[in-house]
Specification:
Blueprint: H1 2-11, H2 17-20, H3 47-71, H4 90-150, H5 157-180, H6 184-193, H7 207-211, H8 218-221, H9 234-237, H10 243-253
Length: about 250
């Protein structure tokens, strides 16, 4: 111990406090409890308590040193144009940013994959439920048909249910079509050419048209009108000449 004290006195320099800036103090007062924590009460194995004791001691040293520095007119605030070199280079920080970005992208991809898997599971579940319900309805209908065939039941309610369900589906699809309406191309063509009229069955006779014979002309109908020549009339005039006649006409043209 004497030797240590002698060595300390040899290299110790008698300098002013502003050159040394050494402060020895206890812990600062806890604002919650209103008292400084006891060293004996601290558990050294407890990381949180140990770090908090270091923090409180540093806080007490700052509270003691700042007034002394102000008294000595030493500036304690950093200037606005102060430039400090970073501990790590820009290249290292860029690598760190890229790594963090890749981690974030990987997390987003895994989250999306989880959501897709969950949606597929839900869709599969709904599909199986629908199939099970259809199979159950089919089974019930077959059982009802068998009972009716054997004479155990005289009710035909299952046919009415099937009809109502099919009508409901048709109504639903019709309402969807009405809501959807024609597309832009169809609307333009309707505006340009109109909607036309009834095409299918438009030439069918009705009771009134069948009984109406005012426009009937026997001469025109039987090829007996004026200007009709020969036995065949108009048909004879429009008849195609034979092969020999066509060949003669070709030879004359040459």
């Amino acid at each position: 111990q004497d030797g240590l004290k002698q060595c300390l006195s040899e290299f110790k320099q008698q300098l002013a406090w502003v050159e040394r800036l050494d402060v020895t103090s206890g812990q600062a007062v806890d604002p919650v409890s209103g008292s400084a924590s006891n060293k004996d009460a601290l558990d050294p194995e407890n990381d949180f308590q140990r770090e908090m004791s270091f923090y409180r001691q540093a806080q007490a040293a700052v509270l003691e040193a700042l007034p002394r520095l102000r008294k000595l007119q030493v500036p304690t605030r950093r200037p606005d144009d102060y430039f400090a070199e970073m501990a790590k280079s820009d290249q290292q920080m860029q690598k760190i940013r890229q790594k963090l970005k890749s981690k974030q992208e990987a997390m987003e991809r895994s989250e999306k994959a989880k959501q897709l898997r969950a949606m597929r599971k839900y869709g599969k579940k709904v599909q199986t439920e629908i199939l099970q319900r259809r199979q159950k309805e089919k089974k019930n209908m077959l059982n009802a048909v068998k009972k009716y065939q054997k004479g155990l039941s005289d009710k035909l309610d299952f046919l009415d249910e099937e009809q109502t369900s099919s009508q409901g589906n048709k109504k639903g699809s019709a309402s969807q079509r009405i809501k959807k309406g024609p597309n832009a191309k169809r609307r333009y063509k309707n505006q340009k050419f109109g909607f036309g009229g009834k095409k299918k069955g438009s030439k069918w006779n009705t009771k009134e048209s069948f009984n109406d014979v005012s426009s009937f002309r026997s001469k025109v109908a039987h090829n007996k009108g004026p200007g009709k020549a020969g036995k065949g009339g108009k048909k004879a005039l429009n008849k195609r000449p034979g092969k020999r006649a066509r060949q003669k006409m070709k030879s004359r043209a040459r």
